[in-house]
């Protein structure tokens, strides 16, 4: 600023002799200089004001912070903005004009600040959010285990994001028609030394395959009989705890061992009466590509926890345990060149349950075998065979079967019809038609595997 | 809690601790051994597609081992997150991805389960190749899924422009130099060699296609935007009514009518799509159906990035000549 003023004065001094007359005294010279200085100050003031007005205008029209000083119009002297306008050039709160009619009528005037604008930095760190709706209808007679005729079975909200360089977090909150449940909510430490993949929180236990899957990725509208009878029903083994999984290096196959400790409360399956009643789940998974289009996945699972027998009897509380053993096998085929049109998944799980009870040990078992064939980009057909004892009375044996037809309007919605016949050991058989619509909004989730 | 119970609890906790510590300790030995091997050997680079692997090999030469996940002949939107890929990612020093949400359906669970801190999103060994490339089809205005499986960050098939190929190569070279500063000069040398050869080849491809500039085509998916933009094709429609939505009878009819109106004689189809609808369109309009690989490895004769453009330009020119469908 001072340099420019000095330059102007020097220029003024240089100009004066050429325009002035020889008889100019130092007195008049001083007056001229003063005059020039005043004019310069006025000019400076004018440009300063114009710049400030321009900047205010820019800030009002743009949601993003105003850039630096706008370039001076051609032919005008180069004047730096006055000190008062400097803060305006710095990043500032986005502004918006007052709506028409509001100004002057008791409403605010001038530019309004915009909160939560698209450029707001905090939004960038919001987690990926998705909501998946699962609508279920049922027709036919089922006296033993009746589902409602029409039901908004589940609305699952997913929130997923990276926590910091060492971890990510996943929350799945499941809204039924009446209640809210934390289906899963855990942090995953992705880069611990020793290759340990560690999860802490509430999660579905790594017992077999079906127990780990959320409703919306199941190939059926329901869960198999063996899950309902022996592995904790719809929610399965799902509890608060710690999970550690490690790959076991070897030159042949993908081999992963998982160990999990939970509080010991999983629906009707496990019930903890004291802090010591933790439940434990172990899983060993082997996977191998057979060809580029087909692969096989085998798993062995074990789970142990205290059960709810003799709850209410203080002498025997926590006395009885349930042990589960499972084998799961999955065979997948998907030709890479036609991967979006054809695929087959065959899967089966066998579960053995040894449940201690005051009435004696109940040794039950059950299985399902299921196959799903994709015969078009949007079409899938499937069948499932079910058979299982009851956990608390192994003398009762239920069996059944289902056939399914699934249609995908797009990657984000799915319509499914399922015919299910169940022969209950202690009641009439049920023939039902299940109808399911699923739809997802929000962030693009990962495809299940 | 009585004394027996307390002892039982303690025993359970100790057993558990022994289980984890034992497992970690026993198996840790193996991984330490392999870690030291890695640190001194070649860089281990994984890419999500064969295109990125091909460009990466040009730049890295024998200073890195480069492997990829998705084959050129499979739909890169729908890759299965197989555990065998977890094993490959576990050993990677660097992961190069196409980005723009192309891999969103399958890469996140693979990265998460890789147990590899080096390649987690945002880590040094995670390179999004799209960051400096010229990206087309970035949707304007409101985006909803009514527009299909739209990519909000723009068209991820950007490698089909050799100019972007050079940018990808430069980004990979910079990343490799960051990991192996001693080899910086070698990587830069290979980069300028690759860029030079690609420049020459691009001139050749452009010259070959120049007489047919403005040729109108219909494509199955929106895979060829960058290719069309660079080589002067005009894409007037898509067999898919919306990205990721299979053809519908009404839309197919509209496409046929539009092709007849504008005398379009070429339908370009990615190798992984069904040819039923394109063939039906061709029958109605007298157009040719070209199975045109958008990726290295898309067909057998396309083993690298140069051959990809050689193949596609030759395929196009032959078809245009045959149809006399210059304009």
Short description:
The complex is a heterodimer of chains A (449) and B (327). Chain A is an alpha+beta fold and 449 residues long. Chain A has helices spanning 2-19, 26-61, 86-89, 121-124, 225-230, and strands spanning 95-96, 112-113, 128-141, 150-164, 167-175, 180-189, 196-204, 238-247, 254-262, 279-289, 294-306, 321-333, 343-355, 362-374, 379-389, 397-410, 413-423, 430-442.
How would you sum up this structure, described in words?
In chain A, 15% of the residues lie in helices and 43% in strands. Chain A has 449 residues and is of the alpha+beta class. Chain A has two domains: 2-112, no CATH class; 129-442, Beta Barrel (Porin). Chain A has a 16-stranded antiparallel β-barrel with strand order 3-4-5-6-7-8-9-10-11-12-13-14-15-16-17-18. Chain A has a two-stranded antiparallel ribbon with strand order 1-2. In chain A, helix 1 crosses helix 2. The longest helix of chain A is centred in the N-terminal third of the chain and has 36 residues, at 26-61. The two termini of chain A are 68 Å apart. Residues 1-24 and 63-92 of chain A have low confidence and may be disordered. Chain B has three domains: 1-35; 40-204, 3-Layer(aba) Sandwich (Rossmann fold), CATH 3.40.50.1980; 210-323, Rossmann fold (3-Layer(aba) Sandwich), CATH 3.40.50. Chain B is α/β, with parallel strands linked by helices and 327 residues long. Residues 21-40 of chain B have low confidence and may be disordered. Chain B has a four-stranded parallel β-sheet, sandwiched between helices. A four-stranded parallel β-sheet of chain B has the order 6-5-7-8, sandwiched between helices. The chains are: A alpha+beta (449), B alpha/beta (327).
Q: Count every beta strand of chain A, where a strand is a DSSP E run of 2 or more residues.
A: 18
* Element string of chain A (H = helix, E = strand): HHHEEHEEEEEHEEEEEEEEEEE
| Total of domains of chain A | 2
Mean pLDDT of chain B: 89
Return the CATH topology of the largest domain in chain A: Porin
Helical segment tally of chain A? 5
Radius of gyration of chain B: 24 Å
Beta content of chain B? 5-15%
CATH topology of the largest domain in chain B: Rossmann fold
Q: What would the average pLDDT of chain A be, to the nearest integer?
A: 83
* Beta-strand content of chain A: 35-45%
Helix content of chain A: 10-25%
> From the alpha-carbon coordinates, what is the Rg of chain A to the nearest angstrom?
37 Å
Structural class of chain B: alpha/beta
CATH superfamily of the largest domain in chain B: Nitrogenase molybdenum iron protein domain
Shape of chain B: globular
Note the main sheet of chain A. 16 strands, antiparallel, barrel
The CATH class of the largest domain in chain A is Mainly Beta
What's the level 1 CATH class of the largest domain in chain B?
Alpha Beta
């Amino acid at each position: 600023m001072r340099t420019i003023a000095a330059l102007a004065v020097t220029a003024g001094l240089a100009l004066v002799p050429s325009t002035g007359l020889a008889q100019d005294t130092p007195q008049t010279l001083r007056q001229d200089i003063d005059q020039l200085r005043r004019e310069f100050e006025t000019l400076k003031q004018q440009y300063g004001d114009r710049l400030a007005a321009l900047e205010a205008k820019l800030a009002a029209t743009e949601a993003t912070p105003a850039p630096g000083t706008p370039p001076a119009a051609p032919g005008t002297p180069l004047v730096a903005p006055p000190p008062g306008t400097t803060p305006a050039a710095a990043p500032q709160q986005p502004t918006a004009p007052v709506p028409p009619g509001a100004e002057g009528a008791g409403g605010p005037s001038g530019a309004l600040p915009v909160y939560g604008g698209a450029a707001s930095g905090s939004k960038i760190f919001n987690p990926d959010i998705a909501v998946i709706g699962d609508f279920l209808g049922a027709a036919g007679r089922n006296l033993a285990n009746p589902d409602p005729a029409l039901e908004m079975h589940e609305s699952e909200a997913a929130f997923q994001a990276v926590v910091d360089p060492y971890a990510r977090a996943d929350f799945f909150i499941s809204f039924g028609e009446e209640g809210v449940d934390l289906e899963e909510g855990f942090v995953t430490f992705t880069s611990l030394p020793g290759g340990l993949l560690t999860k802490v929180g509430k999660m579905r236990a790594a017992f077999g395959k079906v127990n780990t899957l959320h409703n919306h990725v199941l190939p059926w509208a329901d869960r198999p009989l063996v899950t309902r009878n022996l592995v904790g029903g719809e929610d399965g083994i799902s509890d608060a705890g710690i999970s550690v999984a490690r790959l076991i290096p070897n030159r042949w196959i993908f081999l992963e061992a998982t160990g999990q400790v939970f509080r010991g409360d999983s629906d009707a399956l496990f019930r903890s009466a004291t802090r010591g009643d933790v439940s434990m789940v172990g899983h060993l998974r082997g996977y191998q590509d057979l060809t580029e289009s087909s692969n096989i996945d085998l798993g062995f699972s074990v789970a142990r926890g205290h059960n709810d027998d003799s709850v209410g009897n203080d002498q025997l509380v926590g006395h009885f345990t349930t042990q589960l053993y499972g084998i799961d096998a999955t065979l997948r085929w998907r030709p890479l060149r036609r991967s979006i049109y054809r695929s087959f998944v065959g899967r089966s799980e066998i579960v053995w349950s040894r449940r201690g009870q005051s009435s004696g040990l109940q040794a039950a078992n059950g299985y399902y075998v299921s196959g799903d064939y994709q015969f078009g980009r949007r079409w899938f057909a499937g069948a499932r065979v079910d058979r299982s004892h009851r956990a608390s009375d192994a003398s009762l044996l239920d069996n059944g079967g289902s056939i399914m037809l699934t249609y995908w309007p797009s990657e984000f919605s799915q319509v499914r019809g399922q015919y299910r016949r169940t022969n209950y050991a202690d009641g009439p058989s049920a023939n039902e038609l299940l109808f399911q619509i699923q739809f997802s909004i929000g962030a693009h989730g990962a495809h299940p595997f | 809690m009585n004394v027996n119970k307390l002892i039982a609890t303690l025993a359970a906790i100790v057993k558990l601790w022994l289980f984890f510590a034992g497992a970690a300790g026993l198996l840790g030995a193996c991984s330490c051994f392999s870690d030291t091997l890695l640190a001194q050997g070649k860089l281990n680079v994984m890419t999500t597609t064969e295109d990125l692997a091909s460009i990466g090999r040009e730049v890295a030469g024998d200073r890195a081992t480069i492997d990829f996940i998705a084959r050129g002949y499979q739909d890169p939107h729908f890759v299965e997150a197989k555990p065998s890929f977890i094993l490959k990612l576990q050993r990677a020093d660097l992961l190069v991805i196409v980005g723009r949400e192309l891999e969103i359906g399958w890469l996140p669970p693979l990265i998460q389960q890789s147990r590899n801190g080096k390649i987690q999103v945002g880590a040094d060994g995670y390179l999004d190749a799209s960051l400096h490339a010229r990206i087309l089809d970035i949707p304007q205005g409101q985006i909803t899924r009514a527009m299909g499986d739209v990519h909000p960050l723009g068209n991820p098939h950007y490698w089909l422009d050799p100019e972007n190929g050079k940018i990808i190569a430069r980004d990979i070279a910079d990343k490799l130099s960051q990991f192996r500063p001693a080899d910086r000069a070698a990587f830069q040398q290979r980069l300028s060699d690759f860029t030079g050869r690609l420049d020459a080849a691009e001139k050749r491809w452009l010259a070959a296609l120049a007489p047919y500039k403005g040729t109108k085509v219909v494509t199955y998916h929106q895979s060829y935007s960058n290719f069309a933009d660079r080589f002067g094709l005009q894409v007037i429609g898509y067999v898919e009514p919306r990205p990721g939505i299979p053809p519908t009878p009404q839309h197919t009819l509209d496409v046929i009518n539009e092709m007849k109106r504008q005398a379009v004689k070429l339908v370009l189809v990615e190798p992984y799509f069904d040819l039923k609808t394109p063939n039906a369109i061709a029958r109605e309009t007298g157009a040719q159906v070209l199975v045109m690989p958008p990726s290295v490895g898309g067909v057998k004769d396309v083993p690298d990035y140069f051959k990809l453009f050689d193949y596609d330009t030759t395929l196009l020119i032959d078809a245009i000549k045959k149809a006399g469908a210059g304009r």
